[in-house]
Amino acid sequence: MTKTTSLPVRKSRVPRLPAAPKPPIDIPPLALDIRDRLLATVEASRFDFEPEQRLSSTGHCLRQQWYAITGAQTNEVQGGSTWEMRDGDIHEADVKRWLREAGYEITAEHEVDGRNVGDTVHISLPDGTAVEGHIDGLIVGPGLYVPHLLEIKSMSYLRYASALRDGIKQSNRDYYLQVQGYLGALDLPACIFAIKAKDSSATKRMVPPGGDPKFHVEVIDFDPEAFQDVYERQGALRLHIIDGSEPVREYERSDWHCNWCPFMRTCWGE
Q1: Degrees to nearest 5, angle at CA 171 with 170 and 176
Q2: Rg of the chain's alpha carbons, rounded to an integer?
Q3: Could you list the residue range(s) of the whole structural domain that residue 96 is in?
């Protein structure tokens, strides 16, 4: 008998972006050739989903995680995801450099039972499975006298403004659970959650009073109930992997999570 996990269908709303402007009618052949070669290179270097449970994916729909682990067919176009991941790496490197220049010490290395395990953290499930993740770093410095977790994200102006207005717990559950998984694994009191706006000129029109259009920092305290949620979701996913049973969908078809999911067509049969 297979085991299934019943999770409530979650609804979330993200403001829709305006329609993209139409490209120029007359694009020179040379420009088209360069563009197409660039896009083909991005597509060829697309990332592959890791066939294992990851702490960083805890907040994602369980079915999406199950598809990634079992090697399900992704949507045809994935180049954009590769582009965004590389873009995020560049923003992260910038923020770390600026924090160091501002007087903070950042390291990604820590010890477990006397062993240096680098930036790897993990929690252990009842069957002994270790669910791992990789932190951006540990930070100490002015006002931070004990190590805090450091997580760095770059966001579009809509997500950035939402994070300033509502906080990460309300605006981005995926990131919040990722942070709680790391805090619980490391037994740390809080996370310095640094957000860099990808487009500060657009963000400037949307930030709440007192907010900055370029950079925002939130202190996220350890939340034992959220960490328990992380543990239970990873445990439920493990049962589905063992049984070969497909988790239930956590979102409705109209939700943006489904529209952006790399397994949308496999999940909904489209």
Answers
A1: 70
A2: 20
A3: 78-264
Tokens of 189: 């009191």
Tokens of 29: 């052949």
Tell me the torsion sign for CA atoms 98, 99, 104, 110.
negative
Whether the predicted pLDDT of 250 surpasses 80 = yes
> Sheet harboring 144-155: ordered strands across?
105-107, 137-141, 144-155, 190-197, 215-221
End-to-end CA distance of the chain: give it in Å, rounded: 29
Note the pLDDT tens digit of each residue in 19-59: 666 666 677 788 888 888 887 776 666 555 567 888 989 99
Collapse the DSSP code of 193 into the 3-class scheme (helix H, G, I; strand E, B; otherwise coil) and give the result: strand
Comparing C-alpha atoms, which of 259, 239, 205, 230 is closest to residue 54? Answer: 230
Residue 41 belongs to a domain: no
The proportion of the chain whose per-residue pLDDT surpasses 90, expressed as a percent, equals 38
Structure tokens belonging to residue 98: 């600026």
Element (H, E) at 157: helix 157-166
Residue 86 lies in a domain: yes
Within a domain: residue 123?
yes
CATH number at residue 204: 3.90.320
Domains contained in the chain, number: 1
> Does this model's pTM top 0.85?
no
In a domain, 22, yes or no: no
